[in-house]
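Good day; I would like, with your permission, to put a structural problem before you. A protein sequence and the structure tokens that stand for its backbone fold form the material at issue. Thank you for your consideration; the sequence and its tokens are set out here:
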Amino acid sequence: MFTSSEAFSSFSVDDIDEAKNFYGETLGLDVQDGMMGNLEIRLGNGVRLFIYAKPDHVPASFTVLNFVTDDVEKTVDELNARGVTTKIYGDEVLADMPPNDAKGIMRGDENRAEIAWFKDPAANVLAVVAASV
């Protein structure tokens, strides 16, 4: 039904200016002002992402966006250098998974990819994931 249809994802934030700064300056993404005060982000693979302000925003309790990288540790170091905290989950939250290391990286095993989670200023959960996923 949708095999030839273009699709995009969107999620809300509580402060569009903070989001624009975080996604554009901190993460270095191509952020454009969209319709009705929303943000449009063009990702490297041509996918578009829309971020909109919502006065009663509730952060997503799941990962809303995964960034694939060839080197999770290097990417985490770069995020940390930009002030992004990557150790957001304690081992009790990830009880059924391998423990995170001091940087917040869950090291993969034969069944799981290497991944590190972090949050945007609106507390939505994002992640960097090993390219071998």
